[in-house]
């Protein structure tokens, strides 16, 4: 029973995160509040993209069970989602940016690399 609760919680968190990512990526331009922050420089959005897809990869890795395929699936789904979002942005008046797609891929790959190097046997990635 606890196993199912943990599995369902992981799914809810993953799909909620994807929903938030879609909402923030597809909302019409000009609705963002202007806040002075450390991300106030040219191409600062690339850091946000990297972080967003780094986190997405963490959540996707918790979702998949088969250890041999989870890295490939995670990278594929994260990159596919990033490409689809960039294409959809054209239809909501936002700018299509191939560099965003590349940085999204690096964010996804970055966490998977981190996971392979340091996190395979950590408690946060193993389900009981």
UniProtKB/TrEMBL annotation:
Protein's recorded name: VanZ-like domain-containing protein
The VanZ-like domain, residue ranges: 41-109
Superkingdom, taxonomy of origin: Bacteria
Nucleus recorded as keyword: no
Positions of transmembrane segments: 12-30, 50-67, 74-92, 98-118
Alphabetized UniProt keyword annotations: Membrane, Transmembrane, Transmembrane helix
Keyword Amino-acid biosynthesis: no
Pfam families tied to this protein: VanZ (PF04892)
